[in-house]
Amino acid sequence: MDNYKQVLEKLKEHIPFSGNTMRGYKTDTAYKVYSYNLCIAIWYFGDDTPSIDTGKFRTTTTRHQNLVRRAWAA
How far is CA 56 from CA 23, 29, 46, 51, in A? Predict the structure, then answer.
């Protein structure tokens, strides 16, 4: 299980990870990040663009969103 520091580094490189309530994995076309069971971010490989959910969530999911923003500089 990865901690937030490890998750940050793996997000930058699009490396699959699994934390307590956050996970990231690759598909053929994208890298997806989940907080609990909610997809909060996707990096599309074809055009190298990120998409981060801008919705308002509880504390932990907001922390996860901010971690993704920091890693992807979005």
Answer: 19, 27, 28, 15
